[in-house]
Amino acid sequence: MDLNTITAVSRPQTRSELPVWTPGDAWLAGGTWLFSEPQIHLTRLIDLADLKWPALTITDSHLSIAATCTISQLDAFTCPPDWLAAPLISQCCRAFLASFKIWKTATVGGNLCMSLPAGPMISLTSALDGVCTIWKAGGGEQRIPVADFVTGNQRNRLSPGDLLRQIDIPLPALKRRSALRQISLAPVGRSAALLIGSLDGNGALKLTVTASTVRPFQISFPGPTDASTLRTAISEEIPDDLYHTDIHGKPLWRKHMTLRLAEEIRAELLGATPS
Questions:
Q1: pLDDT of 137-151, one tens digit each?
Q2: pLDDT in tens, 116-138
Q3: What is the pTM of this model?
C-alpha cells in the first residue's frame, strides 16, 4: 500500500546518524505490516537497512539475532549439532500465517515489536530465555528478557523512539531438550495456542505459554512434575482474564487447549503417558 503521508525517508548508516525521534516517525525494517494498511499518522520513515547489522552471530555465550534478521535467514541458519533445541527455530518459523514472500521480508524484531499474542518469534525467543537489547531514544541501552518485553496484546516495553537492536539467546538454552505444541482453529490459521517446553540436564522443566494468552507466561519446575501439579501451576499462574479472545479462539477454549498441550509436552519430555 502506498503511504501517501510520508514526506521524508531517513537512511542512517550508524547509530550516531539516527535522527532525533519526532511524532510521525516510524522505524522501517521489513515493513510487511507497515505497508499493509493506511498509516495516516506517519510522515517520516527511518530505514534500518543501511545499518547492515549481521543477521546471526554466534559468540562464546549466546546466539545474537539482529532485529533486522529476516524469517528466511533465521530458518536457513545451520545450527551446531549440540543445539538440541534447534528444531524449534524451524517449527516457529512455520507457525507464521505468512507466505514465502513475507518470510523473505518480515523480520524477527518486527514480530516482537508488533507484540501480537500469536507472534511465533515471541514464542521462540521467550522459550529460549532470549534477552532484548534496546537502544534508548535518549541514549544508552536497556536489556529486557523477551518474556517481560511483551506486556499485552500489541503492547510492549518500548518508549517512543526506542529501537530494538537484537535478541541474545544463551547457548545453554539452545542445548536443552525441547517440545512444541501449536493449534489453530483452521489448518493454516493463526496460532490459538503455542506452547514450548524444555528440559535441562538437571531435570528442570520450563514451560512457556504463548498465543493463547495476551503475553508470554513462563512456569518453571525444579524437577520432574506430575500432571496434577502442572495443571495446578498453570491455573494459578495464568489468570482467566489474560487468555486472549478474537476470531481465532475464545478464552475458555484457549485455556482448555493450553492445559491439554502442556500435558502433552510434559509427557513427551519426561517419557510419561499423557493424563
A1: 989 999 999 999 999
A2: 999 999 999 999 999 999 999 98
A3: 0.95
User: In whole angstroms, what is the distance from residue 273 CA to residue 157 CA?
Assistant: 40
CA angle 78–80–85, rounded 5-degree value:
90
C-alpha grid cell for residue 243? 487468555
pLDDT grade for 98, boundaries at 50, 70 and 90: low
**How is residue 132 annotated by DSSP?**
E
Residue 97 burial class via C-beta count within 10 angstroms: exposed 0-12, middle 13-18, buried 19 and up: middle
Q: Are the C-beta atoms of 53 and 68 separated by less than 8 Å?
A: yes
Q: How many CB atoms lie within 10 A of CB 18?
A: 18
CB 42 within 8 A of CB 3: yes
Alpha helices in the chain (DSSP H): 71-76, 87-93, 100-103, 108-114, 120-127, 146-149, 171-174, 227-237, 251-270
End-to-end Cα separation, the chain, in angstroms: 50
Q: At 114, list the grid cell.
A: 508488533
Helix axes 227-237, 251-270, angle to 10 degrees: 140
DSSP letter, residue 35: G
